[in-house]
């Protein structure tokens, strides 16, 4: 996919201007309005961000907008603010009080609506439960939940009392939970008996049990929401039922006055080494970022029904299902399950039924919809849609056009939003009423974002020259650190170019200054929108007793963007069999989780290495893609290895 994208800006002539009708109503309704505000936001960031931040409610005003001692930023210095108050209390006593905050649909078709008032009540009660379990300001809480309103309630409850949440995606394994508990030193886990996925039950509580069975580490309590009613084991004095705990407390819980820089959450994401990075986000700056981007990019209105299909286990679920939309007083739809359950048209059924107006999903999902066929779409009335969004990986122009025509009926602008766990909020994206779109381009930077493409020396490159994507100024929702590892924070993002944020993506700009993101330049794969470090998969493989060495690379995949291909050498006297291949796949699933399941395992006699012993991933990528070996192989230690790297079908 990405290789097609590299050229697409050179051949892509199609430009889609926002319709007059859309622009007239939009907050930013013209290119000149965008440019004017963007320039102000870059030249006078204090002024721009102070105006945006003033739309939120602060318990104490800030004294200074920004303090930047690279690579450490502080935003809204000395300001006191509470995220849950801004997402909930702020709308009470207004016309939004009885408006739906969350519309929820379970995979089995159950429906729940929580108004702002109801959500506020549930959040206050659960915050009191956390307090009863001695959770204090600054303590970490792991949330390992299915997509149910209680996941959002748990997050907002943490935010209310100043506990730092760390949501662990339900597709991660017991070992992944264990690692995150140990890294974050969390005191409580919030989970559920199980969750539904494509009709079957995922045993979340069982995974938590496995994670802490030998050693609970710092965990004092496990609070279990009852979702599936399947039997689970409950350990006396450690495990508590959600419904029993909330029955014991009242709904009176004032929002804590938190410093603007107080850590709101840690979210683990893959990097170039085996250990995931705990990306740390702040309270005030993060919220201002999520609020402002949601307001301008999704152009949220009170009458919208907004649906972001991301799981809360990913940053998109944090910023654009919960915090951004609720801070704007919007109605956010949450769907528990799979897009093809019970049939391939589940998403379109939901859009039709709830009259969804804004739909935000990932290119990998779009490519599946294309494959399943238009008839699943055309039998539904999608005329309520007015705006579409894409996130997670580059969207190929063909998928963009299909999204535009078949889902958007040719009338909805598409916002292709580039950002990362680290950036907290959208960085490069069209403003739907202002910026003409081109299929495959995330277009132009958001307010306050000083994005550029530079060469290896940090020098900005000219139009249509590829390079590294960097951000040259701090922004409110930027990560503040890697939890417990300041050295890695400096090294990973700020060491290549001094004082400049290195995104880890390759990109170019066209003659109109539009950004075309190519993909990661580090050893991170993007599999169906999930970030997976090749070294994480490699360490999982070598942790298996028969594996001597492993190298993992990505192969372009029509649906998932990239597929995980593993080259494995076995210890002496171990025979490569299909059974072993399956065992190794299962082993990786067990160690990391289903999201990292290898697509292909190839047994090799040896791996191609340079004389200094570095695995030549470039060659392996070519072998994995079935392409001819091209380029320089002069540093290859043993050329005969290349011919021996068979395919998995051997
Ligand atoms: C939000 C999210 C981040 C990585 C990022 C890119 C890729 C995300 C786009 C994109 C091209 C996009 N956070 N990426 N959005 N590439 N166009 N619109 O995805 O931390 O999980 O991943 O995803 O490579 O660095 S993430």
Helix content: 25-40%
Instruction: Classify the beta-strand content into a percent band.
Output: 15-25%
Radius of gyration of CA atoms, rounded to a whole number:
24 Å
Q: Number of helix segments?
A: 21
CATH architecture of one domain: 2-Layer Sandwich
Major pleated sheet: 7 strands, mixed
Bound compounds:
5'-O-(acetylsulfamoyl)adenosine
Ranges with pLDDT <50 over ≥5 residues? Answer: 1-6
CATH topology assignment of one domain: GMP Synthetase, Chain A, domain 3
Mean pLDDT: 94
Total DSSP E strands: 31
Shape: globular
Q: So what's the oligomer here?
A: single chain
Question: What can you see in these coordinates?
Answer:
- The chain has 650 residues and is of the alpha/beta class.
- It has a domain at 528-643: 2-Layer Sandwich (GMP Synthetase, Chain A, domain 3).
- The protein has 21 helices and 31 strands.
- Strands 6-5-18-17-19-20-21 form a 7-stranded mixed beta sheet, with helices on both faces. A 5-stranded parallel beta sheet has the order 8-7-9-12-13, with helices on both faces. It has a 4-stranded antiparallel beta sheet with strand order 22-23-25-26.
- Helix 8 (174-184) crosses helix 9 (204-212) and helix 11 crosses helix 12.
- The protein starts with a helix and ends in a 6-residue tail after the last helix.
- Residues 1-6 have low confidence and may be disordered.
- 5'-O-(acetylsulfamoyl)adenosine binds next to helix 12, strand 25 and strand 26.
- Residues 269, 314-316, 391-394, 416-421, 442, 503-505, 517, 519-520, 526, 531 line the site of 5'-O-(acetylsulfamoyl)adenosine.
């Amino acid at each position: 996919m990405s290789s097609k994208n590299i050229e697409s800006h050179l051949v892509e002539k199609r430009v889609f201007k926002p319709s007059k009708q859309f622009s007239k109503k939009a907050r930013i309704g013209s290119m000149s309005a965008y440019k004017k505000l963007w320039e102000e936001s870059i030249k006078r960031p204090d002024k721009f961000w102070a105006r945006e931040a003033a739309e939120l409610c602060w318990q104490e005003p800030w004294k200074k907008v920004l303090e930047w001692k690279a690579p450490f930023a502080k935003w809204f210095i000395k300001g006191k603010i509470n995220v849950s108050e801004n997402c909930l209390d702020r709308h009470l006593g207004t016309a939004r009080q009885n408006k739906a905050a969350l519309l929820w649909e379970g995979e089995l078709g159950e429906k729940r609506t929580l108004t702002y008032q109801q959500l506020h009540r549930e959040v206050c009660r659960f915050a009191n439960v956390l307090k009863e379990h001695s959770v204090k300001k600054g303590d970490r809480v792991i949330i390992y939940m299915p997509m149910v309103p209680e996941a959002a309630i748990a997050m907002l409850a943490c935010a209310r009392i100043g506990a730092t949440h760390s949501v662990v995606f339900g597709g991660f394994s017991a070992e992944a939970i264990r690692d995150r508990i140990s890294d974050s030193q969390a005191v409580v886990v919030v989970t559920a008996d199980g969750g539904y996925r494509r009709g079957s039950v995922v045993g979340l509580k069982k995974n938590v049990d496995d994670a802490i069975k030998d050693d609970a580490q710092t965990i004092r309590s496990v609070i279990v929401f009852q979702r599936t009613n399947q039997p689970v084991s409950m350990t006396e004095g450690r495990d508590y039922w959600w419904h029993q705990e909330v029955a014991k407390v009242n709904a009176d819980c004032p929002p804590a006055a938190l410093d603007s820089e107080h850590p709101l959450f840690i979210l683990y994401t893959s990097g170039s080494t085996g250990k995931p990075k705990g990306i740390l986000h702040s309270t005030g700056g993060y919220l201002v970022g999520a609020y402002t981007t949601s307001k301008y990019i999704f152009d949220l209105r009170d009458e919208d029904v907004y649906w972001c299909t991301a799981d809360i286990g990913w940053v998109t679920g944090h910023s654009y299902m919960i915090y951004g939309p609720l801070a704007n007083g919007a109605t956010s739809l949450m769907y528990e399950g799979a897009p093809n359950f019970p049939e391939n048209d589940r998403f379109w059924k939901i859009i039709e039924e709830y009259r969804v107006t804004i739909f935000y999903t990932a290119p990998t999902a779009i490519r599946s919809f294309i494959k399943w066929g238009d008839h699943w779409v055309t039998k539904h009335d999608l005329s309520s849609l007015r705006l579409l969004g894409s996130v997670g990986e580059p969207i190929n122009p063909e998928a963009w056009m299909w999204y535009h025509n078949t889902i958007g009926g040719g009338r909805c602008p598409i916002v292709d939003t580039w950002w990362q766990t680290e950036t907290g909020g959208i960085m490069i994206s069209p403003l739907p009423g202002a910026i003409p779109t081109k299929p495959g381009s995330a277009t132009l930077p958001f307010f306050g974002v000083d994005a550029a493409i530079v060469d290896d020396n940090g020098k900005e490159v000219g139009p249509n020259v590829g390079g590294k994507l960097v951000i040259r100024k701090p922004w409110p929702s930027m990560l503040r650190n890697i939890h417990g590892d300041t050295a890695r924070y400096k090294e990973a993002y700020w060491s290549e170019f001094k004082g400049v944020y290195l995104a880890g993506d390759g990109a170019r700009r066209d003659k109109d200054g539009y950004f075309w993101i190519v993909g990661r330049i580090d050893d991170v794969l993007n599999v169906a929108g999930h970030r997976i470090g090749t070294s994480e998969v490699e360490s999982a493989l070598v942790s298996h007793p028969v594996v001597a060495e492993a190298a993992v690379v990505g192969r372009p995949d029509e649906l998932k963007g990239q597929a995980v291909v593993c080259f494995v050498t076995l210890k002496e006297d171990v025979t490569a069999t299909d059974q072993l291949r399956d065992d190794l796949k299962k082993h990786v699933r067990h160690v990391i989780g289903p999201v990292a399941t290898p697509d292909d395992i190839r047994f090799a006699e040896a791996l191609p290495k340079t004389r200094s012993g570095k695995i030549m991933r470039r060659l392996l990528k070519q072998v994995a893609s079935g392409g001819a070996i091209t380029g320089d192989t002069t540093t290859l230690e043993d050329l005969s290895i290349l011919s021996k790297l068979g395919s998995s079908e051997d």
